[in-house]
Design brief:
By secondary structure, this protein is an alpha+beta fold. The protein contains 11 helices and 18 strands. A hairpin with a 2-residue loop joins strand 2 and strand 3. Bound molecules: fe (ii) ion. Residues 269, 271, 344 line the site of fe (ii) ion.
Length: 394
């Protein structure tokens, strides 16, 4: 599963030179500004990456006293080079040996390496122009509707990485979905492996997510094929498909009212942050709003225009203070659309909480070649860890 293996020696002796001299090299130099030298060792071969006079340089061999030095297997580096796995997932798997410096220094190199290896730019809010096709600033809080034409909607999505589409479902459809959500929730208990639970202050469990929700309610799965949803998913501009039987399928997310601990909130992330980028991106997720959502209820929040770019893992919220952060506050029947690598979060409610949303996700049609039924990205990442362990043991 995953990407083909990229040979580090061949890459550094041939492909690298072309990348450094071309636009990816420019992006990588921009992302490497201010970083000290990195020594990369792959199965005993060493290269020094250094930023000097505005340019990223890569030379064979290791300098004596780098800022950070890391060694890894050829499988680990190949996965890093294709973004099948990222530094954080390699670190969690124990596949990085940092002989000098720290993991935090290594992480700061990740954006430059992704730019060099894949041409993915580092996110810089100064560089992203959140303007429409006549250069007028986009009102980030403005809703769109199905009455808007596709060219306009696609252009908005491509610039901001998200849309808030108002009034997609009728009140009758919303009422039917709300009944289904209550019915499905009533069928679940802790023994169901496709449920997530949070904890109330008194220690009792409360259901916060049902994945593969069409198991109990075919209606929730059928919606993925609804022409309105397919139209919205198609705005991404590249072919995408809904896979009911993998990547968690239709997902019913609930944020029950009241203070909760555990899995009901999600920190800032990109969906390919742990890996899987060449398999799952570009992808898009639709959030069908069964109840209203607001910051008081813990709604979806996004950093407008951050999609298609690298953002260091574990970025702290203070560093994001000047970034264009948008809370997508919705009414029942609205649909949110977000590109899955836009930086997004489902923060804790600032008030009482209480929202229910059905998420439907759409991925490249080739996803099924890499991720099997019942599997998701973490299974693919785990599979690569097992491959690496088997290689080390052989
Ligand atoms: Fe996400």
């Amino acid at each position: 599963m995953g990407a083909d293996v990229i040979d580090a020696k061949i890459y550094h002796s041939s492909t690298l030179g072309r990348s450094l001299d071309g636009p990816w090299g420019v992006l990588a130099s921009t992302a490497a500004a201010g970083l000290g030298p990195l020594v990369l060792e792959v199965d005993g071969d060493r290269w020094t990456y250094s930023y000097l006079d505005g340019t990223l340089h890569v030379l064979a061999g290791a300098i004596e006293d780098p800022w950070v030095r890391v060694s890894m297997s050829s499988i680990a580096w190949s996965d890093l080079a294709s973004s099948t796995r990222t530094f954080i997932s390699l670190q969690l798997a124990g596949e990085l040996e940092i002989a000098h410096g720290s993991f935090s220094r290594l992480s700061r190199w990740e954006c430059a390496l992704r730019a060099l290896y894949l041409g993915v730019p580092a996110y810089d809010p100064e560089r992203v122009a959140l303007v429409d096709d006549v250069d007028a600033p986009i009102d980030l809080a403005a809703t769109v509707s199905l009455d808007d034409d596709n060219a306009y909607l696609a252009s908005r999505l491509s610039t901001t990485g998200y849309l808030h589409v108002a009034g997609v479902l009728s009140p009758e459809e919303v009422a039917q979905l709300a009944d289904e959500a209550v019915r499905v929730a009533g069928l679940m208990d802790r023994s169901d492996p496709f449920t997530w639970w949070a904890e109330r202050p008194d220690g009792s469990d409360v259901l916060c997510r049902v994945i593969y929700a069409h198991r109990m309610s075919p209606l929730l799965g059928d919606l993925a094929d609804d022409p309105r949803m397919r139209r919205l998913a198609g705005l991404l501009g590249s072919p995408v498909e809904s896979f009911l039987d993998r990547m968690d399928g239709p997902t019913l997310l609930m944020k029950p009212p009241g203070p909760l601990r555990g899995l009901s909130n999600l920190p800032w992330h990109q969906d390919c942050g742990l890996g899987g980028h060449p398999v799952i991106c570009p992808a898009v997720s639709l959030g069908i709003q069964i109840t209203a959502a607001s910051t008081e209820r813990g709604c979806l929040e996004v950093i407008a225009g951050s999609h298609g770019q690298s953002i260091p893992a574990g970025i702290d919220v203070d560093a994001m203070e000047t970034w264009p952060r948008v809370a997508v506050e919705t009414q029942p029947g609205d649909v949110t659309v977000h590109v899955m690598d836009v930086l997004h979060a489902s923060p804790p409610p600032t008030g009482e909480g209480g929202r229910t949303t059905l998420y439907l996700s759409y991925y490249p049609p080739t996803l099924s070649e890499h991720i099997g039924p019942g599997e998701a990205v973490n299974d693919m990442v785990r599979g690569r860890q097992l491959d690496a362990e088997a290689t080390r043991g052989s």
